[in-house]
Give the backbone structure.
Amino acid sequence: MEKNGSIFIKLGQHLSSLNYLLPNEWCDTFVPLQDKCPVSSYESIEEMVKHDTGQDLQEHFEEFEEKPIGAASLAQVHIAKIKGTGEKVAVKVQHPRLDEWAPLDLALTRFTFATLKRIFPEYDLTWLAEEMEVSLPQELDFRREAQNSIRARNYFAELHNPTLPIVIPRVIWARRRILVMEYITGHRPDDLEYLDSHGVNRDEVSAALARIFNQMIFGANAPLHCDPHGGNIAIRYRPNRGLRKNNFDVILYDHGLYRDIPMDLRRGYAKMWLSVLDFDEAGMRKYANEVAGITDDSFPLFASAITGRDYSVLKSEQGVAMPRNQAEKRAISDAMGDGLLQQLVQLLGRVPRALLLILKTNDLTRSLDEGLQTRQGTVRTYLILARYASRTVYEEALESIGGSILWPPNLGKFLVTWLQYKKREIKLTVYETYLDVRRLLGFGPLSV
């Protein structure tokens, strides 16, 4: 890592986040970039700490493991003990040469994509370079990451929701290139041997992940973590919880890339997803146009991009609830080779940047869910999504009523709105209960 290249590794990570649409061979190549990147030398870390804090590494820590426990494109993490207290901590340190090479890498990225656009106008990736120029400076300032982490930690603490077993390590102190956090560890979500050997229910892990990230997408004033890949999430066994289905924590790391989603986008996105789940193509097209300016000719591709599914599946009777099979994966991969990739690149360049990051987050969480190989398949995660989307639409409807609910005309509007909301909630509860019964009886995922 004593050379440039981190920005190009970061681009590879962005590509790996599109694994539901890109060919498997591409994305499998990029997966190791999540937490197995080249390592910066211990000596360079010592020098950087001295430069940034004015003190030697040994003045901050009584112990500091030279070998990092993980290395990503921008930073690596070491285990240490704070001098004086002996508290065990995780120390995230930026690769020292990034200050020197990041501006050059960004310039090369910008030049490469601009040149590619001139030679192949149909492959315009300049939007990706523009997004990198906005997001990278934020990710390179660990003081900002510390603020994001504290905000997210406080947000979930205030919810007091036991169905969201999220743990965010406490920030101890931060500098621009150094972040010291409490040491909390677990295993990757795709470590199925660990989950099974500790009696952690994969279906419940899947449900918890769905609730956490749907809360971030649809919750009012919620911060959205935009990089939830397998290297940034860990599962920790918690036997003292008592109930089997609640015997784990979801640990969330790396809070460098966050976005605040505008309320109108949250609400439009919720309506669009309810249309998807209701097989309402007219509604899907309407709200796709509202949230992203998608026209009818681009709609099939957009629908595939937001769901990670072939458009023919979305038009079927079971829709996104049916599991992805190998035939569907091959169909998408073949379509990419037949020109769909060019259309996808052009489409992603037109959608709002906030929506682009929502799509990235959704795709990464779908990948996590597929890696868990749950008994209920993807159906339950879509039921959870429907609950959050339905609540978002309900809250907007209540807001539109305005005034006092006790005023007779408002009372009637409130009752109609409430009954519509409860009708959907009851349907979702009944169906989720049905899935639980199937699971308890040993049946596999629903199939076509």
Remarks:
- The chain has three domains: 6-140, 160-169+184-260, 263-440.
